[in-house]
């Protein structure tokens, strides 16, 4: 047994030894119990949320992590017997019910009251008010906060674990609105929040909300990716790379459903561990690469093999798909160029990539998933991006327009993600994309390489 680091004293969580562990049950309620069993009896608090919907559990997970207690799920009209038995074992000093009477009925509340010395409910008129009430009950101060859309669950799952790890609350917002509720702004200011981390792209939480937060004096950081898997990876990279201690474990949960990750986020947050989203049959490359770099001694799979398969437990990365990096025909191929002859003699050169006639300011895309290793001016390449991929493969994108690079060194990108815009910088005589492929550091002909992967450059 080991003590978890939280802002309250002395909860005890069973340590994960080196290797892969699976916490699972026959359904979402049993899986939540399997997760809860990592906590010793006598926890300071137990949070309870509905297992039928996600919003209340998202804010409750970060609150539970801060308090050093688990999060259990219940049906709205009755406590599953396996959950009741776990509550008896936990013997919590108090229970917090996240959700209104319409979500968790008075009958369930009364049953919970019979299992603990103290029980309280925090439920509002909607998911946003409920979240604010849960946060207000659990936090007296915080320098950082996460916000996520309340309309969907994926972005907030990883955010809840990350928030729990740094002692931050999670607020839900109406993501497509152009401003957050005034009550949310007031709540963050009353806690002393200075930095707000947005989970997800502008398609999830609008730029209007980001501008509003900035105008209110908050430092705003957005953690986003091209999909839910990349967004979770971006959140974890931002939060856990800034911590001073090594991560002892990392959690993986399905990105298709919310239930297992709700209780898992409370445990992960209490342990100071990241939670990644995964497909059922393989780990998306960005998450796989981040885990490879992080190298946690323990990996924890949440859910049964029907939800997260054995291939994930065996650290199987999803195949990296490939795509054409830009539209346009090939105007210069890989290989020796025609000699250029003058009165002083002839000179020859070697073209180490292919040129695509994109025109000016055309979008340039990552040919496949990977990590940006170069993003800036490189000699005759002008504005240049280089991306490292699996199996010692790199791709290069040259002559981008000034101000046209849309990625940063160290950023993980996915196949088809916008990375920049074409231009004519460096040794270029017209707007185009010079595209290169490197294998073990040596530049090779991109045309047959991509053809073998089902992509036609011409």
From TrEMBL:
Residues 350-446 form the M23ase beta-sheet core domain. Gene3D superfamilies: Glucose Permease (Domain IIA). SUPFAM superfamilies: Duplicated hybrid motif (SSF51261). PANTHER family: MUREIN HYDROLASE ACTIVATOR ENVC (PTHR21666:SF270), PEPTIDASE-RELATED (PTHR21666). This is Cell wall-binding repeat-containing protein. The lineage of its organism: Bacteria, Bacillati, Actinomycetota, Actinomycetes, Micrococcales.
């Amino acid at each position: 047994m080991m003590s978890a680091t939280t802002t309250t004293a002395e909860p005890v969580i069973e340590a994960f030894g080196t290797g892969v562990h699976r916490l699972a049950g026959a359904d979402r309620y049993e899986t939540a119990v399997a997760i809860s069993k990592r906590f010793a009896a006598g926890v300071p608090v137990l949070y309870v949320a509905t297992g039928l919907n996600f919003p209340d559990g998202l804010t409750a997970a970060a609150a539970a992590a801060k308090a050093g207690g688990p999060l259990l799920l219940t049906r709205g009209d009755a406590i599953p017997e396996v959950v009741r038995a776990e509550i008896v074992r936990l013997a919590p000093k108090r229970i917090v019910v996240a959700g209104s009477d319409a979500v968790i009925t008075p009958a369930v509340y009364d049953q919970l009251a019979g299992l603990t010395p103290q029980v309280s409910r925090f439920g509002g008129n909607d998911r946003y008010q409920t979240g604010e009430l849960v946060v207000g009950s659990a936090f007296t101060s915080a320098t950082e906060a996460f916000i996520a859309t309340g309309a969907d669950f994926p972005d907030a799952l990883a955010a809840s674990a990350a928030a729990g790890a740094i002692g931050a609350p999670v607020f839900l917002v109406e993501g497509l609105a152009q401003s957050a509720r005034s009550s949310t702004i007031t709540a963050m200011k009353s806690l002393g929040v200075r930095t707000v981390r947005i989970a997800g792209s502008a398609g999830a939480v609008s730029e209007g909300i980001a501008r509003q937060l900035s105008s209110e004096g908050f430092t705003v950081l957005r953690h986003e990716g091209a999909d839910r898997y990349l967004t979770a990876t971006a959140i974890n990279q931002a939060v856990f790379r800034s911590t001073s201690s090594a991560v002892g474990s990392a959690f993986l949960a399905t990105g298709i459903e919310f239930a297992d990750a709700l209780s898992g986020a409370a445990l992960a947050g209490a342990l100071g561990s990241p939670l990644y989203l995964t497909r059922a049959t393989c780990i998306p490359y960005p998450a796989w690469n981040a885990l490879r770099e992080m190298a946690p001694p323990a990996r924890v799979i949440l859910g049964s093999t029907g939800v997260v398969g054995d291939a994930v437990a065996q650290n199987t990365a999803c195949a990296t798909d490939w795509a054409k990096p830009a539209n346009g025909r090939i105007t210069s191929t890989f290989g020796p160029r025609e000699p250029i002859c003058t009165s002083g003699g002839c000179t020859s050169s070697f073209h180490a990539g292919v040129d695509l006639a994109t025109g000016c300011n055309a979008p340039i895309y990552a040919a496949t998933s990977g990590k940006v290793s170069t993003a800036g001016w490189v000699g005759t390449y002008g504005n240049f991006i280089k991306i490292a991929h699996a199996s010692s493969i790199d791709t290069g994108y040259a002559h981008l327009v000034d101000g046209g690079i849309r990625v940063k060194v160290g950023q993980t990108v996915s196949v088809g993600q916008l990375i920049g815009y074409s231009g004519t910088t460096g040794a270029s005589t017209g707007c185009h994309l010079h595209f290169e492929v490197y294998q073990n550091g040596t530049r090779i002909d991109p045309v047959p390489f991509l053809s073998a992967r089902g992509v036609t450059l011409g």
